[in-house]
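User: Working on a comparison across species. This one is Putative glutamate--cysteine ligase 2 from Modestobacter marinus. Can you predict its structure so I can line it up against the others?
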Amino acid sequence: MRTVGVEEELLVVDPAGVPVPLAPEALEVAARRGEGETVGEHDRAEQSGAAPETDTAGAPAGPRLVPELKEQQIELGTRVCTGLDEVAAELRHWRSRADAAATTVGARVAALASSPVAVEPATTQGERYEQMVEVFGLTAAEVLTCGCHVHVSVDGDDEGVAVLDRIRVWLPVLTALTTNSPFWSGRDTGYASFRSQVWNRWPSAGPNAVFGSPARYHRLVADLVATETVLDEGMVYFDARLSATWPTVEVRVSDVALRVEDAVLLAGLVRGLVETAAREWRAGVPAPEMRTEVVRVAGWRAGRSGLTGDLIDPRSGQPAPAAAVVAALVEHVRAALDDSGDAERVEAGVAAVLGRGTGASLQRAVFDETGDPAAVVRAAVAATHGR
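Assistant: Here's the predicted structure for Putative glutamate--cysteine ligase 2 from Modestobacter marinus:
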């Protein structure tokens, strides 16, 4: 059974629904409770480059709530999980603990991938974050996006790179399933995931060609760092990458999901993709040959319309109804889902998302009803915590 872990970035908002730079204060509270890491502690760890301590399962030991680039964000991380029930429990627990810390300083947390309300992002203090703003200018200064990263265990770099080569064509479907950022600076962008558009401003972000071997993967990472454009290996923002710290593949294409169950669905599908790709590699099945340019277009299209229009079918490279492409993904990983015991939960999760829509759908429905971006945020706070 492959293990899975999830990292989520959450927006810190005041009771009226406006993002507020209170994450540092909330994290001070969490640190006193043994649940979080202060801004200063996090910056020192980032600067040192030292790997964090781990527990006996290989999970990060200690705090699970940490700072992010902006003071309007808190990041959470689950423990290493073996089942989707455990993933769900961890996400609910740490969303609740993040919210409890925020509440003590007069705020809440919302699983929103961008702010529906116009906001001036405040960069978190610390040498690394300040250097990012200095080097990347407006890209770093104005970005306020929240994503979800899923880690799945792999048996070394050979298997990990083989997985990366085989899952790349399916990643846009994951973007479509988690779209949760239709608004930017108080305006409807016309995108279901505008976060995915903003994120691709970073010079190292986006899809990759087939690597073919760990040596070629690591050479590319080294070449990028050698340009002195990205600050370090942590800023190699591939859509999916080998973790520099854990023996995992890390999939990074998704908006933070508004509802816990949608994040659990994402985790199940990513684990299914990783296991399916590893089986194909061991059986000698070659990686799909779709051009990187087409994968990039597929990702753009997924961010544009989410599940409300056509997606690019990875099998043909042609447009097809979103529901059909999602069904193709489930069928592609079905054997892995059956073997992990995840099939029933994933199928129910897919049916729920296709029936009610993603977080982007809920946000637009609330805005259509109220005309108030702040009301969208307040509705998101309730949905974040299962209400």
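For your comparison, note: The longest helix spans residues 260-282.

User: Helpful, thanks.
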